[in-house]
Amino acid sequence: METINPTDNCFNFIRLYACINVLLYHIGWFMAVKVPVLSSLVNPINGVPVFFLISGFLIWLSIGRTKDFKSFCIKRVLRLYPELWFSIIIEVVCLLLFYEGIDIDDYLQMIILQSTVFPNHTPAAFDSYGIGSLNISLWTIPIIIQFYISIWFLYKWLDKNNKGMDNCYAFKYRMWSYNRIEVT
Fold first, then answer.
1. Which end of the chain is more exposed for a tag (fewer CB within 10 A), N or C?
2. pTM for the complete prediction?
C-alpha cells in the first residue's frame, strides 16, 4: 500500500481562498468598500464554513496521531493561542497609538478576556472604537474549543466501539488518493 504524505494536498489553497473570501467580505461590509469585479467571487457565507470544514477534517486526522487527551490539548493550544495572543498585541499597540482616554483597568480587562476563552466581551470603554467590537472575529474561539473537546471524545468513542472508523479511514484514503492522479 502506498504511504500517504499528509502535507501533499491542496488544503493551503482552499484556506487561502476562504481567507480572501472572508477578508473581501469584511472590507465590503465593515468599511463599505465595494469592488464590483470581486463581488461575484465573494459570498458572505463561504469562508467561515470552509474553515470549519477543513478544521474538522484535519483535527480528525490529528486525533488519530495523538496518544492521549493531554497531548491533544497541548497541540491545540499551541496551534490556536500564539496567533490569538499576537493579534491581541497588535490590537493593544493600535489602541495605544490611535485611541485616547482609556483607563488601564479597561485595557487589562480587555487583554485578559480576549486572550482566554472569553473573547466576545469588549469593555464599554471601547464602544466607540471601530465598529464597537475590538476584534469581532474572535467569536469563533469558544466554538473551536468546544469542537476540539467534543470531537476528541466522539473519535475515541467511535474508535472504542469500532463504529464507523473503517468508513472514516476509507473516506480519508479516497480524499488523499485523488491527489495522486498521474498524467500519461
1. C
2. 0.65
